[in-house]
Design goal:
- By secondary structure, the protein is of the alpha/beta class.
- It has 15 helices and 17 strands.
- The strands form three sheets. It has a seven-stranded mixed beta sheet, covered by helices on one side. It has a six-stranded parallel beta sheet with strand order 8-10-11-12-13-14. Strands 5-6-7-9 form a four-stranded parallel beta sheet, sandwiched between helices.
- It is globular, with a radius of gyration of 21 Å.
- It starts with 6 loop residues before the first strand and ends with a helix.
- Bound molecules: zinc ion.
- Zinc ion (ZN) binds next to loops.
Amino acid sequence: MHQEMNLLIANVQIFTNDDENTILSECAVAIEGTQICAVGLETELKTRYANFQQLDGARRLLMPGLVNAHMHFYGTFARGLGLPQAPKNFHEILKFLWWKLDSALDLKSVYYSALIPTISAIRHGVTSVIDHHASPNAIDGSLDKIEEAMALLGLRGILCYEITDRDGREKCQQGLEENARYIQKCRMTKKKDPDHLFDCMVGLHASFTLDDGSLKRAAELGWTMGRGCHIHVLEDEVDRTITREKYGMDVVRRLGEFGVLGESSIVAHGIYLQDLEINMLSATDTIVVHNPQSNMNNAVGRPNIFKMMGENICLGIGTDGMSADVKQDVRTANLLHKHDLRNSNAAWVEIQEMLLKNNPRIFRRITGQKVGRIEAGYLADIILVDYCPPTPMTSENFWGHFLFGICDADVDTTIINGRMIMHRKQIAGLDEEGIAAHARECAAAVWKKFDS
Ligand SMILES: [Zn+2]
């Protein structure tokens, strides 16, 4: 299905995403193997790379593919699922929905629940996804199944299995082993191929479902293997209440003492962080990921992104399973903070920084891979968007065009690792209807287990 080739893309407007938000006209992008090898004047590159396959961009906007910094593929089968009981708070949302749904997954449903959002990611210009997975009754090999689904199309990702004590010690240990096994697998592959599409972190659910021993083992695994942790923090006050009650400590301090924090660790949400905790995350250079649609959907509030960014925390943006398309959360974030603060100027710069600068930075910190820029030496993760600006577009006003135009525009072409995965909105060799039919069958079986 995939073609790996040397490619020259011309007749495009280029948003480079460099520090100056440079926009280039009459320029072309040359791709050799997995990387961008040149960006420059079309006339020059057409001569220099005359032997490359030529792609006419038809005046489309060429920009780097996007990164979704916190995702749960396994949430796919929640779509349309009826709950027997209406949850009254966040803890009940976990108990009545997510902890029952993840328990009903087998390896086949893990595969299909990853494949559906993988297709959606490609269609919406998302080229890298940082996923956080749970399937307590199908742990061993579950990360391979997600990899298999993503690899079928060629989506880039960082995976992890969320360990937790909520299903007992044995499952917690299995979760730890799944992370260890998959970290080792990625490490071996990346030794031979640094551009390999997959990498791994140590996944943890949240402080309030993890005993001291489990936290310690997870942190130790991270140190030994040189990988960071990926954990939910203070998505709701319940994380603090139960952590205090059971372990006599505040959440961030506890994670810090066990060594879970650090520059390659991701903390998702952080809605109820206190000032001192924000300082601790900043001091340890821990990454935080904001997920506005999910926060609104669970009615849990919104984090103080301004305080966090003011403390120089590397703050990214993700979807937390709400959608594969991070652009939806970008638009929501912009509206959420403005509306809540009754300040129409709020969050303009911050959200732009999260998506365009910090998400690629996060991906690079964890994997060592250079994504997120149209520049020689960067990986060829590139999208062509059906966006012909109806008003003048410059480096200064690009974000306005992104939020109110590009977010809604169709993606025409998606290239990852130098491979053209979607072109003219077609993903070659993919039977989407057939895949959806298999997914529905799988989902019906999962729902049956969910109800029993
Ligand atoms: Zn999450």
